[in-house]
Amino acid sequence: MLVLRLMPGGDLAFYRKATKGLQLDVVRFYMASVVLGLEALHAAGYVYRDLKDHNVLLDASGQARISDFGLVRLVRLPC
Hints:
Blueprint lengths: L11 H7 L5 H20 L2 E2 L8 E3 L5 E3 L6 E2 L5
Antiparallel strand pairs: 1-4, 2-3
């Protein structure tokens, strides 16, 4: 069974179009959220290769989540 968290805020592309652009502080917030998510993936040894605004989902409180891990690859790091 696969259980996914509901993300009723849609994706960042939809939010950007609905608000006709984003204010600088909103852009900084979402970019920081994405960078933290990418850092966590990288620390676990994964490379995320499909970053775009359609793959950043928003929950009901506006928190961002990275989605679509179809192109994620495990990188074998030298010991």
